[in-house]
Amino acid sequence: MTKISVSLEDDLYRRVREAAGQEGVSGWLAGAATARLRSDALLAVSREIAEQSGGPFTKRELDEARAWLPSSATRVR
């Protein structure tokens, strides 16, 4: 395990600390980093599929994908 130092604006740190609860800031940030890496990988694959299929996804295709991946419809504030 590698230990790092991270700088966050005060308000962001407060919100992360509240969200982390008993998991702790380090565990919460590790989970957030893992989720971001998964999201980035999924986005890369979806771009590759769109390129190979001849264009951007249709609204219907996006709606179907969101049905399989409900978190993709979640808005981050």
Compute the number of structural domains. Answer: 1
Q: How large a portion of the residues is in β-strands, by DSSP E? A: under 5%
The structure class reads mainly alpha
- The total count of helices amounts to 3
**Main sheet overview:** none
Molecular shape: elongated
Give me the strand/helix succession. Answer: HHH
Number of strand elements? 0
Range of helix content: 55-70%
**Which value, in Å, is the CA radius of gyration?**
17 Å
Distance from N terminus to C terminus (CA atoms, Å) equals 31 Å
Mean pLDDT: 88
Uncertain stretches of 5 or more adjacent residues: none
What would you say this structure looks like, in words?
Helices cover 66% and strands 0% of the residues. The protein is built from three helices and no strands. The protein has one domain. It is elongated, with a radius of gyration of 17 Å.
